[in-house]
């Protein structure tokens, strides 16, 4: 499965309409981004059930600022519309595979309970 390009207009709908979405924040001038690109593409072929999306931080500067992307590449993973992973730096293939498996294996009821407990504690 090929990767999808996201923009400020499409990111919200993509995250809300798909169970698992991985987002690679990158830029053309970024060396580590270029090295991570093929790893990310290979993962999209291995996991057709996971949306692999890319955000060009040069074209989408406002979106990158809103999501507090301070270094690239940055990988974010969303499951059921919830941000469950956020890490800067290029990952090697085996590490990306671990992230994908960990996101797939999450108990989302437990994740939602933890979010609810954290927000109750802050109220």
From TrEMBL:
<feature type="disulfide bond" description="Redox-active">
    <location>
        <begin position="30"/>
        <end position="33"/>
    </location>
</feature>
<keyword id="KW-0813">Transport</keyword>
<keyword id="KW-1015">Disulfide bond</keyword>
<feature type="active site" description="Nucleophile">
    <location>
        <position position="33"/>
    </location>
</feature>
<feature type="active site" description="Nucleophile">
    <location>
        <position position="30"/>
    </location>
</feature>
<feature type="site" description="Contributes to redox potential value">
    <location>
        <position position="31"/>
    </location>
</feature>
<keyword id="KW-0249">Electron transport</keyword>
<feature type="site" description="Deprotonates C-terminal active site Cys">
    <location>
        <position position="24"/>
    </location>
</feature>
<comment type="similarity">
    <text>Belongs to the thioredoxin family.</text>
</comment>
<dbReference type="InterPro" id="IPR017937">
    <property type="entry name" value="Thioredoxin_CS"/>
</dbReference>
<dbReference type="GO" id="GO:0005829">
    <property type="term" value="C:cytosol"/>
</dbReference>
<feature type="domain" description="Thioredoxin">
    <location>
        <begin position="1"/>
        <end position="105"/>
    </location>
</feature>
<feature type="site" description="Contributes to redox potential value">
    <location>
        <position position="32"/>
    </location>
</feature>
<dbReference type="Pfam" id="PF00085">
    <property type="entry name" value="Thioredoxin"/>
</dbReference>
<protein>
    <recommendedName>
        <fullName>Thioredoxin</fullName>
    </recommendedName>
</protein>
<keyword id="KW-0676">Redox-active center</keyword>
<dbReference type="InterPro" id="IPR013766">
    <property type="entry name" value="Thioredoxin_domain"/>
</dbReference>
<dbReference type="GO" id="GO:0015035">
    <property type="term" value="F:protein-disulfide reductase activity"/>
</dbReference>
<dbReference type="InterPro" id="IPR036249">
    <property type="entry name" value="Thioredoxin-like_sf"/>
</dbReference>
<dbReference type="InterPro" id="IPR005746">
    <property type="entry name" value="Thioredoxin"/>
</dbReference>
């Amino acid at each position: 499965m090929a990767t999808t390009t996201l923009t400020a207009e499409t990111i919200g709908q993509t995250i809300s309409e798909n169970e698992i979405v991985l987002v690679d924040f990158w830029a053309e001038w970024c060396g580590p981004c270029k090295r991570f690109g093929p790893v990310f593409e290979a993962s999209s072929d291995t996991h057709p059930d996971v949306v692999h999306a890319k955000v060009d931080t040069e074209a989408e500067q406002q979106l990158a600022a809103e999501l507090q992307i301070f270094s690239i590449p940055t990988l974010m993973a969303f499951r059921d519309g919830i941000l469950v992973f956020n890490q800067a730096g290029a990952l090697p293939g085996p590490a990306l595979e671990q992230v994908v498996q960990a996101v797939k294996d999450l108990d989302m009821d437990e994740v939602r309970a933890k979010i609810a407990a954290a927000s109750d504690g802050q109220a």
